[in-house]
Amino acid sequence: MQNRLLVHISLILFMVFCFDCSKRPSDNQIQNDIHAKVATDPETEDSDVTVTAKHGNVALEGKVKTAAARKKVEEIARAEPGVSELDDETLVEPNVGTETAVPADAASQTMERKEPTAPPPPPPPIVVPAGTVLTVRTDQTLSSKTSQTGQTFLATLAQPVSVGGRAALPAGSTVRGRVVNAKAKGKIKGEGQLDLALTGISVGDHTYLIETGVLSSTEKGKGKRTAATTGGGAAGGALIGGLAGGGKGAGIGALVGAGAGFVGGAVTGNKQIEIPAESALSFTLTRPLTLQPSS
Q1: CA dihedral in degrees (270, 274, 279, 281; nearest 10)?
Q2: CA 167/CA 21 separation, integer angstroms
Q3: What is the pLDDT of residues 68-88, one digit of tens each?
Q4: 262 has a pLDDT exceeding 50
Q5: Is 120 exposed, middle or buried (0-12, 13-18, 19+ CB in 10 A)?
Q6: Which of 267, 126, 281 is nearest to 198 (CA)?
Q7: 194: which strand partners?
Q8: Is 0.85 topped by the overall pTM?
Q9: Cβ neighbours for 270, distance < 8 A, ≥ 6 positions apart
Q10: 212 neighbors 238 (Cβ within 8 angstroms)
Q11: What domains can be seen in the chain, in order of their start residue?
């Protein structure tokens, strides 16, 4: 009788246990329920928490914003039906779930600062117009007797040239010229002839080809002299004898011609045309000269 009673009690206890097991939620359900409650609670919705359940033992891992949020997550997990043990490994990090937002104005300003600044446009080239007078001083003596047609000579720009208020040709620039025609005067007959023109000028690192009117001087019989410019435009010019300190032919006087002329020319005793070194000569540009802007 006693044995039969024990069997009945065991059977009842087994049935109660089985009924209780059927009511206990699964591990998967426990995980999902805790996740859902953490995600919807205002205190924990920004938390990054991972829930793992195994036979009712729940482990929490991840990051929360505050200690209060960590405590709330733990309360939610402990209150979940079917949880028997809880292991909370969550960490508190204030920046969890937030991104550093850059205000629109600040972002645009940052982009503007990063954009490379365009270099300023280069200055426009300088154009020295036709008709401009270039006054130079010769580096050597030129003569109708000793100079040869086609011979080159060097000179130095004596007066600076500006265009529109901008310095174009500085004084001291090296100038190159050419003897267009040289003819010695004969003792009995025949006139002396000396024609010159400029062909180039150096400014900084650049050397430019230039075109000027031909500066022509003729020595005829009985000391009659003329000076003129061909192709030099209508600008006035002058031939003044001698240098500043005096010299041969210092009394030649002045002659105004159709174009720019000699300044400081001289003649020798035998009536040959001679232009001593350091004489000042003026030439007129017949074609515009375009200068590249300095670097």
Answers
A1: 130
A2: 104
A3: 989 998 999 888 888 889 898
A4: no
A5: exposed
A6: 281
A7: 182, 217
A8: no
A9: 185, 187
A10: no
A11: 2-92 (3.30.1340.30), 126-291 (2.40.128.260)
pLDDT at 221 over 90: no
Amino acid making up residue 218: T
- Answer yes or no: is pLDDT of 214 > 60: yes
Residue with tokens 């000027």: 212
Q: Report the candidate in 165, 203, 195 with the shortest Cα–Cα distance to residue 177.
A: 195
Rounded (10°) angle between helices 27-40 and 67-79: 140
- Quote the percentage of the chain above a pLDDT of 90: 31
Nearest to 273 by CA among 243, 252, 244: 252
Query: What's the 3-state SS for the chain?
Result: CHHHHHHHHHHHHHHHHHHHHHHCCCHHHHHHHHHHHHHHCCCCCCCEEEEEEECCEEEEEEEECCHHHHHHHHHHHHHCCCCCEEEECCEECCCCCCCCCCCHHHHHHHHHHHCCCCCCCCCCCEEECCCCEEEEEECCCEECCCCCCCCEEEEEECCCEEECCEEEECCCCEEEEEEEEEECCCCCCCCEEEEEEEEEEEECCEEEECCECEEEEEECHHHCEEEEEECCCCCCCECCCCCCCCCCCCCCCCCECCCCCEECCEECCCCCEEECCCCEEEEEECCCEEECCCC
**CB within 8 A of 72, min separation 6: which ones?**
41, 43, 44
